[in-house]
Each structure stands twice: as C-alpha cells, then as structure tokens.
Amino acid sequence: MEIIKKEAYNLANKGSRTFGKQIKAIFFDLDNTLIPTRRGDEKACQKLSDILQTKYGLTSEIADETTTNFLQAFRSCPDNTQTTLDSWRSYLWTQSLPQNLKYLNETIYKQWLQLRYKYVTIPTEYEVLLRNLRKQYRIGLITNGPSNAQWEKVNKLNIRSLFDCILVSGDLPWEKPNPNIFYMACNLLNVHPNESIMIGDKMETDIQGGKAANFAATIHISHMSSKPDYLIEKLGQLLYVPKPSSIEEISSNDKRRHSLSSGMSGNGNSCLSGYNNSQNNGGQQHAQRRNLYHSKSLTFDQRFNKARKVGDIKRVSSFQDSDSNSENSSDSIYS
Ligand SMILES: [Mg+2]
User: Fold this and answer.
1) Distance between Cα 263 and ligand 1 center (Å)
2) pLDDT tens digits, 217-273
3) pTM summary value
4) Which residues are registered as beta bridge partners of 140?
5) Ligand 1 mean position, distance from CA 207 (Å)
6) From ligand 1's centre to the CA of 269, what distance in Å?
7) Which CATH number does 2-35+124-220 carry?
8) How does pLDDT run across 40-61, given as a tens digit for each residue?
C-alpha cells in the first residue's frame, strides 16, 4: 500500500504536465486500500479462536472451524436489511458456534467486534497522507458495500472528517464500476472526471470504473505477494520475451526494467528462437529433455528440474501464492 503515497503524490503533483490538465480531486476506495479489512478480519478471527480455546475449552480444530465458518458467512452476507447489524452478526455466531456454546453468541460477537476494530484500522501514515493531500486536493471516498456495514467502519474508525465526500454504494442506485457513482462523486466535489484520480485495490471495480468514467488516471494497489516476472496482454507477445538463458542473467531487481521491450530489439532473444536454437545446436539436449519429461518414475518437479539442468528451460513464476493470499480473493462483497 506504500504505492498510495508514492504514486498519488507523483501523479497528482505532475498535474497538468502528465495529463494535460489540472488534477483537482483524488478518490479512494476503502476496503483493502485505506484499511486492511481482509487481513484485519482474519487476525480478529485467529485471536478469537485462541480465546475460544483458552477460555471456553474448545479444541484448536473446533475453534478454528467455528471462526472460519463465521468469517465465511459474514463475508458473503455482511448485512441483512431485515434486522440490525448487531442482531444479524449475533445470529451468524449462533450458526457457527458448537451446540454447547451457542448461548454465548452475543458475548462472542462483542469480543469479535472489539478485535475487528483493533485490527481493521487506518494506519496513521495514511491518515497523515490524506490530511496533507487535502491541503491541495479535494479528497473523496467511494466504497462498495451495504450501507450500515460501511458506515459503521467510517464511524468507528473516525475517518469521516478526512474526506470532502463519502459515497457508499448501498445508499445509491449504482456501485463501482458503474460510472454514475464516479460522476456523482465528481459532481459533489465540483470537479470534472478528467481532473480526478481513482485509487483502489480492485481492477474490476475501482480501476475499470475509473476508466469508464474517463478519470484522468487510475492507480491500482496490488496486494499480490508473489508477482510474475513478466506481464503480457496477449499470448502472441510471448515471442518477444527474452530467452531463458538471458533471464538467468538478469537480477531480480532488474527483471521488470528489462521487460518485454528489450526482447523486442530484434536480437533474436525470444522463447521460440531460443527453442529453435537449442534444436539446431543441441538436438541431443532436446532428446534428453524429452525423455526426462516422459519418464513416469519421476514427479513433474523432478522431471522439470532435471530437464532444466540439461537445457535452457526456465520455470515461470507461480501464481499460486498470490492467488491464495491476495486481498483480491473475492469471497467478500466489499470492494
Ligand atoms: Mg477495495
């Protein structure tokens, strides 16, 4: 989330030079952009699982299962308009707790709520950042989610005074990425979309919406803990990725800078040309690799690693970690 500070200042301060127009307003998403909702909720449930074990004698398996079930149910349906937030959440705890502890639903709910707002809080540096930005720009918050649940966060975190306008989709006919919610925000702050920047963590709501509304710029906060070495838009661009032997020589810090453009310089460093060269110059290596790949006595990883030693194969970064850890994992309606 450090990117908020750097990019918001960089882009906003460049103003007319970058966009050919003056930037007047910066809009932020709330969940997982300004506050760590997903991580905070997980921490609160972990802590509550400890309490269920130490204070109420649950085994670690049952305590974890209880809090996991609650979190899953809460994320998929954080509010029920037929009742209050408190009674809805107490009900969800009743559903999640084991039979002999169901009577504790309200006590557990209160403990969870306390823990939640201990961990889901706006970092002081972001508060300072918003106050500083507000000296130069109009600052808005555009958040998707049920009205009660989102306003509870705004009020409990005491962040209302940091913004010139706050829009919660639950109060409106639209939610991000519908451009109307962005237009409404601009109207409230008396700015044109092309004088505005949108910052958020969800490509499909914050970024696509900001672009659909013709904002001057959009900034994506990426929470991926493991990032690919290269990003391409079409599979055809694979032709221009440097050949694996060149990749090995690039330090991890330089990989992104090296990027696709260097592969396009016409030096033949493409995956396919590398493959062809290895076929022309090392048919034997190719045969060795082929045999290893078809060896049924080895696991895929063993075959891959052995084949890699023989020739010029490079494992592409796995997305596994990022998928499981990403704040973008979408079992929540908040965005
Ligand atoms: Mg978000």
Assistant:
1) 35
2) 999 998 877 778 777 788 877 776 665 555 444 444 444 444 433 333 333 333 333
3) 0.68
4) 27, 165
5) 11
6) 39
7) 3.40.50.1000
8) 999 999 999 999 999 999 999 9
Q: What is the pLDDT of residues 155-191, one digit of tens each?
A: 999 999 999 999 999 999 999 999 999 999 999 999 9
Distance from Cα 283 to the centre of ligand 1, integer Å: 51
Distance 83 CA to ligand 1 centre (A): 25
Q: How far is the CA of 57 from the centre of ligand 1 (A)?
A: 36
Residue 286 identity: H
Ligand 1 center to 175 CA (angstroms): 12
CA 242 – ligand 1 centroid, Å: 35
Residue among 154, 210, 214 nearest 27 (CA) = 210
Element (H, E) at 47: helix 37-54
CATH 1.20.120 is the classification of domain 37-119? yes
Give me the amino acid identity at 333.
I
Tokens representing residue 63 in the block? 């305590």
Q: Specify the length of the chain in residues.
A: 335
Domain edges within the chain = 2-35+124-220, 37-119, 235-321
